[in-house]
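Quick one: structure for this chain?
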Amino acid sequence: MATVSTSASPELMAEQALLGALLLNAPAVEMVGSWLHPGHFYRPVHGELFGLLLARQRAGHPATTPGASAADRTEWAMGTIDQARSVRGFTPSYGHTLIASCPHAAHARAYAALVLDSAVRREVTEHATRLANSAAAGHHADVVELVPALQRTVERCFAVWSAATADVQTPACAATWTTPKPSTAPVAEQALAEEATLLGVLMAQPRALPSLAGQLLPGDFAGPLHRVVYEAMVDLSERAQPIDALTVLWQARAGSPPVPDVDLAQVWTLVSDPLPGDPGYWAERVVIASVLRTTQDCAEQLRALAAAPGRPVSFVLGDAERLLSHLRAAADRIQVERAVPPGPAATSAPRRPAAAPAADGRRAPPHGAKEDTHSPPASHTRPAEPTATGRRRR
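Got it. Here's what it folds into:
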C-alpha cells in the first residue's frame, strides 16, 4: 500500500506517485516521455530524476523492453536511485519514499496527466500574472511583448495537452469559452484627469475630432460622464454642427438612447473651460489607459480560471484563446515606436476630475519568465478576432 503524506499537496503527491510508478514500471517511461518533459515538474529534483529516467530509457536499458527479467527491473529501480545521488536534494532514502508513494505502478500515464495538468495551469497562471502586473504598473511597452508571449505559451500548452490526451475522452470546451467580464476595479485618478484634460483640449480644437474619432472610441473613457461628453462632441462633428459648451451640453442631454442621470452641472464644468494642448497626445494617453485596463481585466480573469481546480485544463485553454483574441485586439492599438514621452507634451496640466476615486494599490510586475521553446501545432486554430466596439450612433 502506498505511503501518503497528509501534509503534501495533491500536485506534489502526483509527481511522487508518477516517479514511483516509473521506477517500478520502466516501459511506462517511453509511453509518457513523448509528451511529458522535466520542465513540467514543479520540484526541480523531480524534474532531474525524470530526465535521468528518460536518458536511461533512451539508452536502451533492458528493463524497458517487453519480457524484462526481475533482475533487470530491480537494477532499473536501484541503479536509477544510485545514479541520482548526484542530483541536488536527492537521497537514496527519498528514492524509496517515491516508490512507496505510488498507489499503483500501472497507472503511470494517469499520474503523468495530473503532473501535466498542474504544469499547464502553473505556466498559464505565471504568464497571465506577469501580463496583469505589467498592465497595472502602466508598462504598455511590456504589454505589447507579453501578449504574444502568452499566446505562444497557450499554443504550446495546447499542443502538449492534445498529445497527452489524444486517446483519452475529454469534455468539449468550445461551448464554455468565456468572454471578458466588466471591470470592478477603481479607476486611477490620473486616468480620469487625463480624460477630462482631453475633453478640454478638444473643446478648444474641435477640428481635431474627425481625425481622432476612428482611433479613440467612447468605450476608451473610464469615466461614464466623460464618455457621454465625447459621444456628444463626435455626433456634433459628424453632422457638421457647431461645437461649443452649450451645443455639447444640449447634445449630451439629448443623447439617443438617453443616458439617465446625466449631471448637467458636471457636463458644463467639463466643456466650459477649453484648454490648450495637443489632442493627439492626450488621445493616445486615453487609448493606452484603456488598453491597459482591458489587458489587466482579461489577464486577471484568465489567472483565476487557470487556478480553479474544478475547471478542466481543456476548458482553461479554450478560455485562454477566447480572452487572447481580446488581448491581441487591445495590444494592437498601441504603437510602441511612438510611445508617450516621459515629459509633458501639452501646455496645460491634467484637469482633476470632480470626484477623485480611491487609489487602486496595484503591484509591480514580478521578474523571471520561462522561454517559449515549442512551436504551435499546425492544426491549432484560434477564434476569430473581435471587432472593436463602435461609437453609439444617433
